[in-house]
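Re-run with default settings, no changes from the original entry. Doing this only to confirm the output is reproducible before filing.
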Amino acid sequence: MISSQVPFGLYVERRVPALVSKLTSAAQDRLHQWLSEIRTKAKDVGKAAMGVVQARKQLDDGNSAGLTAEGIYNARLELDGAPPGSAVVEEAGITFGPFLQGISVYSELDKAKDWVDHYISQRRQQLNLDLPGPDNFSESYRDYLSHICGFFVLEQAVQSLYEGMPRHEVEALWEAAQSSIAPMLSRQFHRVESSSEFLQFRMYVSLFCATLEEHGYSTQSLSDSLESVRERYLTLLLEEAHEDVENAVQTNGFIPMIVNTEGEYQRLVHHKLHALCGASADDMFPRRLRFSESVPRIAKLVKSFIFDYFNFVKASSDVAYLVLKALDMFMFQNIVVELQEATEHKRPNNVPQLQVIIQVAANADVLCSFMGTLEAYALHLCNVPMTSHVRK
């Protein structure tokens, strides 16, 4: 009950601070609860957003294999002009009521900037908790990157809802995230021990970057980290190929190849080795060739190597140079060296040394002659005419 001794205006004036404090505290409590909720859903939002980008790329390429109806719908929704991330945020059941209500309360009190500052402070604290990578990063990097992606997809959604949210604050959060993530990715790339595992990791990181680019974030620092590990992938490919080449040479590299049927001969035609076999197409079967059975196997290995490395560097501006340089490294490290060691240290006991030397020399001569075909194959993949390419 208002005392008759206290003027009503003074009473209201005294009560206003308490009312304001109650309103702002209630708004902040609702915000904190909402922030906790969206933090738990960030991983799902990130996975869904990355799925949309992947689905759209597949649709652009005319390949819908493996896509769910939901994924196709969300991809097409954004192709039709829906804001990036809107479909996946709605799908996760996230509404922005507590944030918008708080904005309304603080704006009425002429304290909108205080609300924004408080929100940014809370999100920065959450990001600082989420950024340190898990101990088992190699096993959980998908969940980790999805969570970080979801965090920034949600920030973009907030930006689109409230123009008063300063973009530079969100970009500062993203720059801090990049600075933390890039070293973790680099360490993981150098821990990977197989080229297939390396490719899977790189593809997921590339999808992570592409998704954030879609939502307005520059990923140049992370893209640079992908470029910096190119040599690591090449090393893994060369190491894996060396064992295959060694096995081919040691298994059947010291006696001439015998072709018994037309089908066997046509396989040489397929690999474009028939012109180097030293036998006429009119000769009767069986035909004795210049080279041993290891040569077609090695030719297939080299082509597979070129194809794998091309797919890794095809986005580079100097892709043809990189692929041909890798081809040179393959031929020297995995073939020239192996053939040399075969004549010196790895000769089978039941094969005379002179026969080994003669056969290895014939194999090396055929493979050297085959280099032009391999280079043409590499340049074809790079969409570069053989006549227009000049070696650097």
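The first strand starts at residue 258 and ends at 259. The mean pLDDT is 82.
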